[in-house]
Design goal:
Blueprint (H helix, E strand, L loop, with lengths): L4 H4 L4 H19 L2 E7 L7 H22 L3 E8 L3 E8 L6 H6 L3 H12 L3 E6 L5 E8 L5 H4 L3
Amino acid sequence: MRLGWNNFCATSMRRRISTLGGLCKEVAEQSNIEVNFQSLQVPTGMSSDVSLSIFRVAQESLHNIAKHAKARRVQVELLGTSTSVVLRVSDDGIGFDPEASKHRPGLGMISMKERIRSVGGTISFSSKPSMGTQLETTIPVVEMPVAAADIF
């Protein structure tokens, strides 16, 4: 997955969303998985820390799906509300037992949890064996003036 933070942080939120969409397209091409990306009402003035966290969690989620899930379809949604931004990644793969992973989480899951907590957000995983997995993060957003948000 070649698309990195420098591209994601480039100028505007529109460009960041485009880069996240590009990541989804790249994963689809490399892994032969159908990856659909949708963004709706994403706040334009998110801080670079929030943007980076969203991008890295999406990147790690897609990597895990391609490596472990045996999924055919993935849905990536980036949704804004008046107080938060939500990243939701769902797949139709083999799933896993979340209770078992609590006792022995992988480094990727630990990293995602720490990254989201560092920006005041929450992350949850919903999964059952052979029923797919859904990851959802919710991050409170204090909008920055657009000029300040786009200067990194």
